[in-house]
């Protein structure tokens, strides 16, 4: 049976961290190990993780979520890496479904799924930049919060690029697809994504920095495709 490592980057995550860890603990198929990489938090995140004795806790100076994920992958012992965010929740069957695909279909390099967004209870209204449709219907895409990838695929494609946060997941996925890695995306969401005042991906939308990162990623993808035999 495939060994699976759950990797969670954390930065000042005390508000939602316990819910995220509870969702990992509640899986119908448990991860063989769970690694939390604390990216220089100065809140109660470390104390919360201490309440989960099965979790391996690593601490580093603040370097961003991509660097924290990379650190977690480097420390992992699993054959597959399942990423989870500090403010999201896996539905109970998430890991069983994703890992089941990798075990049954050796030609598939990674699996992802749609997400069901939900409004964090402390908010009375949708955050700026969030349309009502983002709550009403599942959102398709392949962010790291749903990604389960074979370890050898991650090693072949390379780590997340810290300079591309918060679209480091999109940039990594472009590299994987350009390299011909086969994948499966489920339209049915098995991850609940919390919408709150601090979502990095939402805050970055429409900024010049985000547009610049997108242009860099697409340009690099085009160069790779042109160079392909």
Q: How would you portray this structure in words?
A:
This protein has 229 residues and is an alpha/beta fold. Helix content is 37%, strand content 22%. It has 9 helices and 8 strands. An 8-stranded mixed beta sheet has the order 3-2-1-4-7-6-8-5. Helix 2 links the parallel strand 2 and strand 3 (55-59). The mean pLDDT is 90.
Topology:
Blueprint: E1 4-10, H1 17-25, E2 33-38, H2 45-50, E3 55-59, H3 65-75, E4 80-83, E5 89-90, H4 94-104, E6 110-119, H5 133-136, E7 148-150, H6 151-157, H7 168-178, E8 183-195, H8 200-204, H9 208-227
Parallel strand pairs: 1-2, 1-4, 2-3, 6-8
Antiparallel strand pairs: 4-7, 5-8, 6-7
Helix pairs in contact: 7-9
The proportion of residues in beta strands is 15-25%
The major pleated sheet works out as: 8 strands, mixed
Following the backbone from N to C, one meets helices and strands in this order, namely EHEHEHEEHEHEHHEHH
Output the number of helix runs.
9
In helices, the fraction of residues equals 25-40%
Number of strands: 8
Distance between the termini: 36 Å
Q: If you average the pLDDT, what whole number results?
A: 90
Give me the secondary-structure category.
Answer: alpha/beta
**Strand order of the biggest β-sheet:** 3-2-1-4-7-6-8-5
Summarize the structure.
With 229 residues, this protein is of the alpha/beta class.
Which characteristics define this entry?
229 residues; alpha/beta; 8 strands; eight-stranded mixed β-sheet
């Amino acid at each position: 049976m495939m060994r699976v490592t759950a990797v969670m980057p954390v930065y000042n995550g005390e508000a939602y961290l316990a819910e995220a860890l509870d969702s990992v603990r509640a899986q119908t198929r448990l991860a063989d190990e769970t690694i939390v990489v604390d990216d220089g938090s100065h809140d109660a995140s470390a104390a919360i993780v201490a309440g989960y004795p099965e979790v391996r806790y690593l601490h580093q100076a603040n370097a961003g979520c991509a660097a924290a994920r990379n650190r977690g992958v480097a420390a992992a012992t699993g054959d597959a890496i399942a990423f989870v965010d500090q403010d999201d929740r896996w539905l109970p069957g998430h890991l069983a479904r994703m890992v089941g695909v990798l075990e049954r279909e050796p030609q598939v390099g990674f699996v992802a799924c749609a997400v069901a967004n939900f409004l964090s209870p402390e908010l009375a209204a949708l955050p700026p930049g969030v349309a009502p449709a983002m709550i009403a219907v599942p959102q398709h895409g392949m962010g790291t919060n749903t990604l389960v990838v074979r370890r050898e695929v991650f090693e072949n494609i390379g780590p997340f690029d810290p300079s591309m946060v918060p679209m480091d997941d999109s940039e990594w996925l472009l590299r994987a697809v350009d390299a011909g890695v086969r994948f499966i995306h489920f339209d049915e969401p098995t991850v609940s994504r919390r919408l709150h005042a601090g979502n990095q991906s939402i805050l970055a939308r429409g900024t010049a920095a985000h547009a610049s990162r997108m242009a860099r990623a697409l340009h690099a993808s085009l160069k790779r495709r042109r160079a392909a035999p």
